[in-house]
Structures are given as structure tokens and as C-alpha cells.
Amino acid sequence: MSFVIVGLLLILMLLTGCSPVSLPKKPTLNLYQAPVLRIESGTVVDTKDGIYTAQQDEIWHSDYRYRQLELKVIDQ
Fold it and tell me: What pLDDT score does 56 carry?
């Protein structure tokens, strides 16, 4: 009887040791994006569409920040 119990315990330990490593439930695709970029006049920016040179001091808002500002204006 004790051999059966020891055998079952060994089998359970082996099965537990073979369990797969748990992966994150949901992959996070959030990349850091600065909410605001302040670009000085004359700054050259290399974009996917080509080179852009700021003609004056500019403030660029991220998509998220732009939506926040838009909702703030709508709610007023």
C-alpha cells in the first residue's frame, strides 16, 4: 500500500514539474508615447513621408493627448 502512495506522489510531482510556463493573459502593446513634443524653429524631423523642417516653434500633441484636449473643448 505504501508503495502505491509513494508511486502516486512521484507521478504527481513529475506531472506538476512538466506543466507549461504561464504566459501573460493579454499581451501589452502599449508603447511609450510622449504626450507633447516641443519643436524649435528650424528643427529637421525625419518622418516616414520625408524630411520636415519646422518653420516656427511648434507643439505636437500625441493622438491620446489630442483626443483629451478635444473632449475637454466639447465638454465646455
Answer: 96
CA 57/CA 43 separation, integer angstroms: 9
**pLDDT confidence band for 55 (50 / 70 / 90):** very high
CA–CA dist 71, 63 (Å, integer): 12
- Nearest residue to 52 via CA among 67, 41, 65: 41
Distance of CA 50 to CAs 53, 58, 64, Å? 10, 18, 24
Half-sphere exposure of residue 15, counting CA atoms within 13 Å on the CB side? Answer: 6
Q: Please give the single-letter amino acid code of residue 19.
A: S
Q: What is the CA radius of gyration of the chain?
A: 29
Domain range summary for the chain, segments of one domain joined by +: 34-76
Q: What average pLDDT does the structure give for the chain?
A: 81
User: How far apart (Å, rounded) are the C-alpha atoms in residues 52 and 59?
Assistant: 14
